[in-house]
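Preliminary data (for renewal application), zinc ion complex.
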Amino acid sequence: MSATIVADGTKDGFALAKEASASAPLALVVDGKQRDLGYVPPEGAEAEIVTTTDPLGREIMRHSTAHVMAQAVLNLYPGAKYSIGPPIEDGFYYDFEVDHPFTPDDLEKIEAEMKRIVKENQRFERAEVERDEALEIFKDQPYKVEIIEGVASDAEGADRDAGEGPVISVYRNTANGEERYVDLCRGPHVPGTGRIKAFKLLRSSGAYWRGDETKPMLQRIYGTAWESKDALAGYLHRLEEAEKRDHRKLGRELDLYSWPPEVGPGIAIWHPNGAIVRKTLEDLSREMHLERGYDPVFTPHIGKSTLWEISGHLDFYGESMFPQMDIEGSNYVAKPMNCPFHILIYRSKTRSYRDLPLRLSELGTVYRYERSGVIAGLLRARGFTQDDAHIFCRQDQVVDELVAAIDFFRALYATVGLGPDRVRFSTRPPKSVGSDELWDLAEASIPKALERAGLEYSVDEGDGAFYGPKIDIDVRDAIGRYWQVATIQADFLLPDRFGLEYTDHDGSRQQPVMVHRALYGSIERFIGVLVEHFAGAFPTWLAPVQAVVIPIADRHVDYAQKVAENLKRSTVRVEIDDSDNTMGAKIRNQQMHKVPYMLIVGDDEAEKGTVSVRPRSGEERRDVPIDDFAATIADEITRRAVDLTY
Ligand SMILES: [Zn+2]
Ligand SMILES: [Zn+2]
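Predicted structure:
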């Protein structure tokens, strides 16, 4: 935990940390600005002491490790050019121009050199220099020169808050008074390299300078760093777990979906196994929407760009849309969102206050342009299907509708045993449409709804949609990762842009309010999350194959068929494994496919009318009468139980 202490104007961060008995201090935050421990805060200033286990402390330590890595690379590969090396979630990277892509051997050498640098306990020393001096220091480093020249923009090293002109700060690593390394950097840094306790280089890959494919390809090394060897080991274990659960890898193994290169990146095709999981989730969604008073609608995948001009999407969202298609002189676009179509349905006839709330729902497939570099399987894709709905209501109904949407979320996610685990309220972004008055009304409705629904939340300033504030809901998976899934938005603006109206009791014309909400969010993404959360071992109600009957010998195939027929009558998805494989191979194969139940049948079972139930994990249970098993599994499926009964 970080401590806060009031400065007396004479002590630096080291002394203040000591006074506050803060253990493992790394840096300071004074008046919202991050500083090195060597900084002396002015009298009366509140200094927050950042320690190794604070999120900010880890960030500073990771970025310091990136400097150490760059020093190691410059030492080992003379002529290497270094560009930038920011901290990222759980780690850091640094980009270099070198004469060959880094190999695993290179990474080992670099890691060894980094250990030497850490052992030397070099000091990190800050200096502020004039632009000319900075250009002189980095004269052989073209990327640093480019950054210095662009210092007025958003470059690392620019300190626009300090004084009038930009101050260029550099950090030197020194040992015994000798300079070992210098980097252009805003800071802060740990006081010495000895503060870096545990790190590991993870991988390397090509990365364009400034992320721009017209610029040179650099070599990026990713690493991770932690405050202790234990914390590092824990992280590496989580990483290994996450790799095992990767939904792309499991999608292949379980034959769920694929991304053929002929289709293009970020657009999946669904194989029968994946499609049945998806259909099951879609059926559940449709059923629950009907129960909750939503009317299903269908709208097209493309439409004239006029619609998106009115909605404002072309202005505010154009970069995320697929390019326009010219058809007989009109421009058409693939829809990035379903809202405008639902608005047209609302507007298709005169509405009265008695019609409200009107809840229109659709499993609507949308297309968004994502750069190929950021596409990540089902999690970030170019085409996906939202369980989208738009609720048109009176102003006095908005909070009720928001609360109902949150309740809906809870009921839906209970079926897979997830969240809500983290809730964010995102407010008006800098680039938005509509008056302050309407934004104030929309923003006021959200905290009311969250409080009534009993949800704790944090506020993300400026992260709302261009037409309204929103609630984002995250769930936490089996290995502790958070995933953003659902979004619920309050919108007072699109109804205005489209001139929506209803007739009130007194005959006056009023403007309705819209609630936009998607609970799975994207069905594709939600399934990606579920595959990773369950590590492919779906609850029975979702599993593509729910039971497999395995005859011990050929003479048991007839009985196996009888068992399968019986289960099919209870609409269980069942298969028979009558392959020539050995019993051991069959069991391993079904376990690999994470089938919930294997039913093993031999002479004994055929004679007694039973099955031996072998769940995908756990103990085998013998002599289960076939009717009992059928009734139990049917009940497990109907209840949408998260855990297996046997
Ligand atoms: Zn730096
Ligand atoms: Zn919408």
